[in-house]
Amino acid sequence: MADNLSAEPRGFLSSVIRFCLQNKLIVFLFTVFVICWGLLVAPFDWKLAGLPRNPVPTDAIPDIGENQQIVFTEWMGRSPQDIEDQITYPLTVSLMGVPGIKTVRSYSFFGFSSVYIIFEEGVDFYWSRSRILEKLSSLPANALPEGVKPALGPDATALGQVFWYTLEGRDPQGNPTGGWDLNELRSVQDWQVRYALLSAKGVSEVASVGGFVQEYQVDADPDAMRAYGVSLQEIFQAVRMSNIDVGARTIEVNRVEYVIRGLGFIKDLNDLEMSVVKTYQNTPIFIKDVANVVLGPALRRGALDKSGIEAVGGGVVARYGENPLEAIQNVKDKIAEIQPGLPKKTLEDGTVSQVTIVPFYDRSKLIHETLGTLNTAIHDEILVTIIVVLVMVMHLGSSLLISSLLPLAVLMCFIAMKLFGVDANIVALSGIAIAIGTMVDMGIVITENIIKHLDKADPDEDRLAVIWRASTEVGSAVMTAVATTVISFLPVFAMEAAEGKLFRPLAFTKTFALIASVFVALTIIPPAAHFIFRKKSELNLHPKLFGTVITVLGA
Questions:
Q1: Which of 162, 166, 107 is nearest to 367 (CA)?
Q2: 86: closest CA among 128, 146, 2?
Q3: Which superfamily, per CATH, for 66-155?
Q4: CATH 1.20.1640.10 spans which residues of the chain?
Q5: b/e burial code for range 502-516 (CB count within 10 A of at least 16 → b)
Q6: What is the pLDDT averaged over residues 92-119?
Q7: Is the pLDDT of residue 175 over 80?
């Protein structure tokens, strides 16, 4: 057998085919390995008997947003013009010196400033964040007003908002009960739910929306201030210094060391009311003497509305580079974990009402619907292609051999998507669906040529040599056809900005699919054909049978 193979003209392609024919066990093991790996990284929700899966990152649509970072700065109570002059402009000028910047956009609003730094596409996302943090930490001492600290936005993209929810009071059966004030729900959101969801893997930020943030409000009484000779600045200072613990040294008594502390953290309204503003003739003047202290809502400039009713909730932002589907599932798991521990109360009618996390936007539904549609489309295309091949080739064994190329090449495409960082979305998976008709052509050409050579070969000639010669004969043509198709996509690969992010995944997946199909056709089909094609009489079905099938299908 080796002598017959070595007698033929040699080349790289023929050497590869010869190696595969002579080492069928290696080819078989490689095929099994590819199938297992492809199933583990496939983006579809396939249950594999508990095997650990690491699927391709999945989303409904490609992220066409720019490579940007956001610097957010608060200066409450200031006009947009003051914000622009004293915060936005100094920050913009300073950040322009960061390397790799494409452009800087800034917006000044009442009480806050937003600066958007757009980087070149080739700049690493986290590298750009580190450069901005370095620039912010090295700002001159008087560059910004006192007490103003710019903050870098979450490490996420514009499409990072994947999950939204509200907090509602519900009974054990899940029926809405009410009974919770907006400030109570906002406190639960800020101090329990938010921190719990931030710990979920893949979550970058949890934003609280709606309700009222509770705060201690000190309403100064001008008449009382005038009577006691107290200024507004003294009240400010008294409030500022009231909510702190004071540390001191230690004392030792009977060989036991005691830590001395002054406890000053505010626990209720009375603690703040009893804070001393000043002393007049050895008599303390308390805050309650010159002001009215209440617990009330902080000033807000927005609200969350659900079905016409004001609500409290939050939005979950997925971290850059994470799998949105996995991040959403991690958030759901965390919600199920913390739900039993959320506050509950008994209402006046005896109903037990517990704070419940109720989702109202879940992108995983859109992702599953998108993947389900494309999964069905790919399955249907493969099935139709198999039927067409079976009818037109007129040979059961070769039809199954050609058809097996499709699922194997698709699994290889999933592996390539994982290795090259191409996310699975409606555009990327459409590239696979578009390429299926072209993918099967490679197998048809190779298989038909093998059948033709076996039909014409001498009965005593070694089948392995015949299959090798037939595969090598059309191998170069198949490679040229694939290369021509791949080269035609070069303009798509060269696209930049939003259009490039939109269409490049399609070009990548179609290229992966075509390369995988030609790889299977040249390395796996020839060894498989050596097992399937045994006798010359089996190579073709009877023409009359084919005519009968066509007549039945036409009827």
A1: 162
A2: 146
A3: Multidrug efflux transporter AcrB pore domain (3.30.70.1430)
A4: 12-41+394-554
A5: bbbbbbbbbbbbbbb
A6: 90
A7: yes
pLDDT at residue 551 is higher than 50: no
Residue 375's pLDDT is what?
77
CATH homologous superfamily, domain 12-41+394-554: Multidrug efflux transporter AcrB transmembrane domain (1.20.1640.10)
Domain(s) labelled CATH 3.30.2090.10 in the chain stretch across 214-297
- Amino acid identity at 460: D
Complete DSSP assignment for 123-189: S-HHHHHHHHHHHHHT--TTSS-TT---EEPPS--TT-EEEEEEEEEE-TTS-B-----HHHHHHHI
* Average pLDDT estimate for 190-198: 93
In this structure, are residues 17 and 522 in contact, taking their beta carbons and an 8 Å threshold? Answer: yes
- Give the CATH fold of the 214-297 domain: 3.30.2090
Q: Rounded to whole angstroms, how far apart are CA atoms 48 and 40?
A: 8
Amino acid at the residue 45: D
Q: For residue 312, is pLDDT > 60?
A: yes
542: pLDDT strictly greater than 50: no
User: Element (H or E) spanning 13, and its range?
Assistant: helix 12-22
Query: Contact at 8 Å (CB) between 266 and 272?
Result: yes
Q: Which two tokens stand for residue 546?
A: 């084919």
Where does residue 9 fall: left (phi above 0), alpha (psi -120 to 50 degrees), or beta otherwise? beta
Task: Say yes or no to pLDDT of 132 above 80.
Answer: yes
For residue 179, CA distances in Å to 171, 174, 298 come to: 11, 14, 21
Of all residues in the chain, the percent with pLDDT exceeding 90 is 25
Q: Which of 313-327, 459-473, 499-513 has the lowest mean pLDDT?
A: 459-473
Task: Judge contact between 192 and 273, C-beta under 8 A.
Answer: no
Is the pLDDT at 297 greater than 90, yes or no?
no
Using DSSP's 3-state secondary structure scheme, residue 425 falls into coil
Task: Inform me whether the pLDDT recorded for 501 exceeds 50.
Answer: yes
Percent helix, strand and coil across the chain, each to the nearest 5: 50, 20, 25
Calculate mean pLDDT across residues 161-184: 89
Is residue 281 helix, strand or coil?
A: coil
CATH 3.30.70.1430 in the chain, residue ranges: 66-155
